[in-house]
Amino acid sequence: MTTIFRGNIVHTPRLGELKTIPRGYLVLEDGVIDGLYDHLPHRYDGVPVEDWGDRLIMQSFADMHVHAPQYAMEAIGMDLPLLEWLQTYAFPTEARYADTEFARRTYRRLAQELISWGTTRVAMFSSLHTDATLILMEELEKAGICGYVGKVNMDRNGGENLQETTEESLRETVRWLDSCHFAHIHPIITPRFTPSCTDELMRGLGKLGRERGLYVQSHLSENLSEMEWVRQLHPDCRRYWETYQKFGMWRSHTIMAHCVHSDVREQEAIRDANVLVAHCAASNVNLCSGTAPVREMLDRGLWVALGSDVAGGDHLSMARNIEHAIRASKIRRIESNWHTPFLTVAEGLYLGTTAGHRYFGAGNGFAKGDKLHAIVVDDSALPEGVRELTVRERAERLVYQMRQEFITAVYSDSRRVR
Amino acid sequence: MTTIFRGNIVHTPRLGELKTIPRGYLVLEDGVIDGLYDHLPHRYDGVPVEDWGDRLIMQSFADMHVHAPQYAMEAIGMDLPLLEWLQTYAFPTEARYADTEFARRTYRRLAQELISWGTTRVAMFSSLHTDATLILMEELEKAGICGYVGKVNMDRNGGENLQETTEESLRETVRWLDSCHFAHIHPIITPRFTPSCTDELMRGLGKLGRERGLYVQSHLSENLSEMEWVRQLHPDCRRYWETYQKFGMWRSHTIMAHCVHSDVREQEAIRDANVLVAHCAASNVNLCSGTAPVREMLDRGLWVALGSDVAGGDHLSMARNIEHAIRASKIRRIESNWHTPFLTVAEGLYLGTTAGHRYFGAGNGFAKGDKLHAIVVDDSALPEGVRELTVRERAERLVYQMRQEFITAVYSDSRRVR
Question: Who's near A15: CB < 8 A, 6+ residues apart?
């Protein structure tokens, strides 16, 4: 079974490498990518071509850190710092998901909006509610999204109606894991962050994760007050990351969101364990957390991808979040007296696509043997250039100018989902 | 002649003051605002009400610094610093406007896009071409936009096909001024920036401006290399602003874009002359110029409004540019060890609306006696909150989440233009 797409192909096989094939061909054999071509080889003569004309065929986006329940408060309460913002907005919002009807409505809308912005892979926090978490997974699955979702664990320092006992938290986690039967959406162990979880809970979660072979996601070194709090809670740990390591959760494919204030030693620990940094530039500025040293982390060999962090982040569009990552790196450049190179648009695109897709076992860019995760983009509503724009320039412009209505088609796991 | 609008009214009469009237009334008498009301007074019994239901009636935006010809290269070439970017992208693009057919097409589209984002007042740079400048003014007028447009003057350091002789520049400026007969679009004297204009040209422009009672717009202290260049060109001037003062162009309502690196003395000179600072936060980060000290300028009593600075800025939407101004101020907060207060959403909205409208003689917010500059916004496509959102929260969210299709109606100078 052969499928052939034609269009202006854009992908980022490596950091800083943006490849384009103007009016090129992308061939799928039995639902996996077989090759990319300037000119279609003769062996495909007679096979029908799905021609997207002058549209761009780009990689879809991967959002490696997003809080599903906070979608209901997206872009609200942007005038508070992290810990106050959690108490005033985030925790009361999450408490609302005890209501499964509300969860169903909101999560259906969230899944549709993710697809409409071309995000096909996610690593997502739910709330502590087992039933709402299963509903979230079901709605993502139905919308055609692939990824990892975690029932959040928190047995201390929660808000009103947003805390479990240690025993409940572990029991509900087991009930949740036993109920996960989805083709494309998988469970991931999700202690909210160290201040939310007692040692006993962390120990139980670490054990559960290892027994069932599950990945882990959490938060790390987002904000200076939070880090001070963690030091008080764990005087035995010299650095924040050790509070995860202690309980067996510091290992390959653990996702740590933020890492804004991770020092060299913490960065090395991240690299050595093959932990993924989910960089959330919009959120880090919104909550005045800081600007993460992404260039430094990349130079040091860390694995960095991007997260929208809705609703510390204000927008699900990963194009916008790529833009924010580029801007954050330009701020670091200015602050370093113009010594540190910023992220180019090509590098930003890599972080928002390939770097995240690799978490799911994908190769570099549109790689042979991969399932197709792609968007088809019609940018004809954007202004005419003074000369014909290159495909590369058009792709760069879309980082800043993407609109929902430009995204004509979305492919996830080789299925057309929009 | 009485017109009555009903809807959720939002405006920012003063810096930091965001006023809302849920399901309130806005009354126009003979095309000027007569009052805002919670409940409609009895004297209006029987007058038909244009009811916008649950939509928001907000102030339209004012874009106080934008380069019309660069619209054709919006969001392209974001990987270069200012002076290289000018030579590689901006100047070759502007040279293209010798072609009046191209100018007509592009400027028509620009005018439509401005209105579609709810921008009704502008201060705009054209290119050096007189005919294209007149076409730009005509297209803005037709679209219903109000504002100031300047034929750019540059008799040194231009690019290929983008430089005039001093004599040409002055002669063409007079020809242009003599041809300006528009109801809502007025000319403004526009030396590109000090490095582009010889003393003789500056002297001539200063004189022309005074004789004809015209305002002036230009650039100031955007970037450290530019400032060094100006020091070399004008060893007699201690600070950049003096290069404008010297030629009689430093006076009330002169618009100076950027002012990123203006020191205390330059800031005081801006304040004392009632010069308007057009803060262009997106552009300043895109081109790695720096982050302007907006809080400091506001505390010191300077008049600051916002500019998109397309195409150093990447987007015409002033909602996005307000967001960028807020983010820039949060960066300044982080850099000051969390001492400097950031711009709240309410303050950002003030800068993007009232602060700019005041340039045109408008009062505070929807003020009695003013012509109506307003947008009607339908935010029903945004997610349901966990409780009913206040009108204030909905307005705040729109700074981050505005989409073109939300803007149902636009009023400019009391005319419905969309």
Answer: A298, A347, A350, A351, A355
Q: Which CATH number fits domain A2-59+363-416: 1.10.150.450, 2.30.40.10, 3.90.1010.10, 1.10.260.40?
A: 2.30.40.10
pLDDT over threshold 90, residue A86: no
ipTM of the complex: 0.97
For residue B256, what pLDDT is reported? 98
Reading the block at residue B338, the tokens are 């969390």
Residue B81's pLDDT band (cuts 50, 70, 90): confident
pLDDT in tens, B11-26: 999 999 999 999 999 9
CB spacing of A73 vs B344 below 8 angstroms:
no
The B residues from 320 to 379 touching A (CB cutoff 8 Å) are 323, 326-327, 330-331, 333-335, 338, 342, 344-345
The C-alpha of A247 sits at a distance from chain B's nearest C-alpha, in angstroms, of 33
Q: pLDDT confidence of B145, banded at 50, 70, 90?
A: very high
Q: Which of A342, A344, A384 sits opposite B106 (nearest CB)?
A: A384
Are the beta carbons of A1 and A352 closer than 8 angstroms? no
What does residue B299 show for φ and ψ, rounded to 5 degrees?
-60, -35
When pLDDT is averaged across residues A371-378 and rounded to a whole number, the result is 98
CB–CB contact B401 A344 (8 Å): no
Stated length of chain A: 418
Distance, in Å, from the CA atom of A167 to the CA atom of A248, rounded to the nearest integer, reads 19
Strand pairing report for B276-279 and B255-258:
parallel
CATH 3.20.20.140 intervals, chain B: 61-352
- Between positions 82 and 141 of B, the ones with CB within 8 A of A are 92-93, 96, 102, 105-106, 109-110, 113
pLDDT digits (tens, 9 = 90+) for A333-365: 999 999 999 999 999 999 999 999 999 999 999
User: Pick from B104, B19, B84: which is nearest to B392 by CA?
Assistant: B19
d(CA A379, CA A55) in angstroms, rounded, equals 7
C-beta of residue B28 within 8 angstroms of C-beta of residue B413: no
Rounded to two decimals, the pTM is 0.98
- In sequence order, what are the residues at sequence separation of 6 or more whose Cβ sits closer than 8 angstroms to the Cβ of residue A370? A32, A33, A357, A362, A363
Domain B61-352 bears CATH identifier 3.20.20.240: no
- Identify the burial level of B356 via C-beta atoms within 10 angstroms of its C-beta, where 0-12 means exposed, 13-18 middle and 19 or more buried: buried
* B276-325 pLDDT tens trace: 999 999 999 999 999 999 999 999 999 999 999 999 999 999 999 999 99
Residues of chain A with CATH 2.30.40.10: 2-59+363-416
Does B311 sit behind a cis peptide bond, omega within 30 degrees of 0 on the bond before it?
Answer: yes
Is residue B252 less than 8 Å (CB to CB) from chain A? no
Residue A159: what pLDDT?
Answer: 78
In chain B, % of residues over pLDDT 90: 96
Radius of gyration of chain B (CA): 21
Handedness of CA B401, B402, B408, B414 (dihedral sign): positive
Query: Is B87 a residue whose pLDDT tops 90?
Result: no
Contact A384 B92 (CB under 8 A): no
Tens-digit pLDDT profile for residues B147-184: 999 999 999 998 778 999 999 999 999 999 999 999 99
Q: What average pLDDT is seen over chain A?
A: 97
Say what angle helices B318-335 and A318-335 make with each other, to 10 degrees: 40
